[in-house]
Design goal:
Oligomer: single chain
CATH topology: Pectate Lyase C-like
Strand content: 35-45%
Number of domains: 1
Helix content: 10-25%
Largest sheet: 31 strands, parallel
Distance between the termini: 22 Å
Radius of gyration: 23 Å
Number of strands: 35
Length: 480
């Protein structure tokens, strides 16, 4: 089974590169007839029928593509497509449009959402369960109005899952690449949308307890997310990678209550690189990582067996809302599972934080160990640039962090550039260009080269002692 799975992934991966680049895939040109076979798979075309539900045609196209084997392509030419709920199992191939704004999918109005919820599922318009999928070159958007016949909206547009309430994938695994896709939602008001998620990764079941965690690998590049509760959501993961953007291939996430969300992940590496976060309203988050655990969690407990990496690099955070946050990072497992002693190793490097709201925060960091914040740039007027604090739960400290070489010269803050709250221990803050100050209320924190308020003579460990673990992890690198 493992050998077969590896072969399918290899074949599908080669064909993905062809399917999403028409210049290299002659089987996708307009001159080729329907169902013409590529060197690595069949192309199945579903023609647009404006104002008509194409769900049955699309279901049949995926069934034919799965039957044809790995590397097959389901193609939507330029046009508008109305779609009912669709779920595809074990697809090793590509779902391809003609480009953003050219191939446009919308949910048909009056969806039977009661039937979906009656099956114990979240209301995602398109769901892939299992397989190795590439989705590219299209727009998926919702319309202004009530989408479901029962008066409610959708939970999401696109979901990649290894299981749902009724079906478990063959390998308990799903892998996907999403490239050059535009997701457009509709916002009624602050924190109110008729479609909550643009895209999700994880299991699909509305059970409130005993849920299995998922094995998901997901890569998202060159996409647009506009007007959703969550732009992307990666939740309940026991193993996998999430790559949100790469250098020169980042995403734009705008007007989302929480643009990128990572909840309840175990043993998962996360990379957020080269993206633009436009945080436009009050009480909004750009990036929210919350590795919480409590007795009300829906997911079964899984031990963390590795030190996960979380890389946040080269992003732009435009923070326009009061009491909003560029980053919210909370590694609660160091409290709930102290026996593991495997904190998430976070590196925030070379990001730009642009403030235009007096009560906004750049980074709000809770319950972390061994994190690194280096060479980030802050401009405009906000409240705090970097705040490190306990969550308030048992006053557990944030320990052994490094804040190095950040540039605050073009920023002003209502409180301070950096705030180390009580229960911060053994942090090192070194220079950079400081237009603001540091408030140090913690213990054994080393502060040098900048203005320090409310702090005794700094003491603490050396950088070499504090950051040996993350140095070794970064040398090994992030594995896609």
């Amino acid at each position: 089974m493992k050998a077969l799975k590896g072969f399918l992934i290899l074949i599908a991966g080669i064909c993905f590169l062809l399917a999403c680049n028409k210049d290299e895939a002659p089987g996708l040109s307009d001159d080729n007839p329907q169902n013409e076979t590529l060197a690595c798979g069949k192309v199945i075309v579903v023609e647009p029928t404006k104002g008509t539900d194409i769900t049955d045609d699309l279901k049949q196209a995926f069934a034919d593509a799965i039957l044809a084997g790995p590397g097959s392509v389901v193609q939507l030419p330029e046009g508008e497509y109305e779609l009912d709920f669709i779920e595809i199992h074990e697809f090793y191939g590509s779902f391809v449009g003609e480009g953003k704004g050219k191939t446009v999918i919308t949910p048909k109005l009056g969806l039977d959402c009661d039937a979906i919820e009656g099956d114990g599922l979240w209301k995602f318009l398109i769901t892939f369960v299992g397989g190795n999928i590439n989705v590219c070159n299209m727009t998926i958007k919702v319309t202004d109005g009530t989408l479901c016949s029962n008066g409610t909206g959708l939970d999401g547009l696109l979901l990649f899952s290894d299981y749902n309430h009724n079906y478990t994938s063959v390998d308990n695994y799903v892998k996907a690449i999403v490239n050059n896709v535009e997701f457009i939602g509709f916002k009624f008001g602050n924190w109110w949308y008729n479609c909550w998620d643009a895209m999700g990764g994880g299991g699909n079941s509305k059970e409130t307890s005993g849920l299995s965690r998922s094995h998901v690998d997901l890569k998202v590049t060159n996409c647009i997310f506009d007007s959703f509760g969550y732009g992307t959501q990666f939740i309940g993961i026991k193993k996998g990678n999430f790559i949100l953007g790469t250098k020169n291939n980042g995403n734009i996430l705008s007007d989302c209550a929480e643009a990128a969300v990572f909840y309840q992940t175990v043993n998962a590496d996360i990379s957020v690189v080269g993206n633009k976060f436009n945080i436009s309203d009050n009480y909004y988050w750009g990036l929210d990582f919350d590795n919480y655990w409590d007795n009300t969690s829906a997911f079964v407990d899984e031990l963390q067996t590795k030190t996960p990496l979380f890389i946040i690099e080269g992003n732009e955070f435009n923070i326009e809302g009061d009491y909003s946050y560029g980053l919210w990072l909370h590694d609660h497992r160091i409290i709930s599972h102290p026996q593991e002693n495997l904190p998430v190793l976070m590196q925030m490097k070379s990001n730009n934080f642009n403030f235009s709201a007096a009560n906004a925060f750049g980074m709000y960091i809770m319950e972390v160990k061994g994190s690194v914040f280096r060479n980030n740039k802050f401009t405009g007027s906000g409240f705090v640039g970097i705040r490190v604090t306990p969550s308030g739960f048992m006053d557990v400290p944030a320990e052994n962090g490094l804040i190095l070489g950040n540039n605050f010269n073009k920023a002003t803050f209502g409180r301070a550039a950096i705030v180390l709250s009580p229960y911060t221990i053994n942090w090192t803050v070194i220079g950079g260009s400081m237009g603001g100050s540091v408030i140090n209320l913690g213990t054994n924190n080393i502060i040098t080269g900048i203005n320090v308020q409310d702090s005794p003579e700094p003491l603490g460990q050396t950088i070499t002692d504090n950051f040996k673990t993350i140095k070794e992890a970064m040398k090994e690198g992030f594995k896609e």
